[in-house]
Design goal:
5 helices, mainly alpha, 0% strand, 158 residues, single chain
Length: 158
């Protein structure tokens, strides 16, 4: 597989996972989520789709860049991609916990684990490919914000 195909494969995978995660949120966004008390810094609902789409593309490019180093650093790359896959799974799980189960407390605990796994993935990626690491910084920042938002929503609605 060539370099571009690897990057596109991971970008499409991330976008598909994001799409299915979004399917879990759709009905709750119009029915359950509006009933929650939210903090003053809660962004408008329309911002989430473009932000997450951009982040999924950046994640995919980052993972593709790392995957492209497989011929030179197989063991390190494989380990980094396992962390990547795990964090991507946790990312999808958060939507199910928060919107599917309507459980902000459980989602709040999980988002902390997600943040730690994103940071660990970033730490692995930056050692393999600087650009891949840098592409993870906006994701890390957004999930930091999302963590505070999630925990605030739980606190205001407990």
């Amino acid at each position: 597989m060539n370099k571009i195909t690897r990057i596109l494969t991971v970008v499409v995978t991330c976008l598909v996972i994001g799409y299915f995660s979004g399917m879990v949120t759709r009905s709750a966004i119009t029915s359950w989520y509006p009933t929650l008390v939210k903090p003053s810094f809660n962004p408008p609902n329309w911002i989430f789709a473009p932000v997450w789409s951009t982040l999924y593309i950046m994640m995919g490019v980052a993972a593709g860049l790392v995957w492209n180093r497989i011929d030179f650093e197989k063991e390190i790359v494989n380990k980094a991609l396992i962390y990547f896959a795990f964090q991507l799974g946790l990312n999808a799980l958060w939507s199910y916990l928060f919107f599917g189960l309507k459980n902000p407390m459980l989602a709040g605990i999980e988002v902390i684990l997600l943040w730690l796994m994103i940071f660990e993935t970033y730490s692995k990626f930056i050692k393999i490919n600087k650009t891949a690491g840098y592409l993870f910084i906006p994701y890390l920042l957004w999930v930091s914000f999302a963590s505070v938002l999630n925990i605030s929503i739980w606190w205001l609605n407990k």
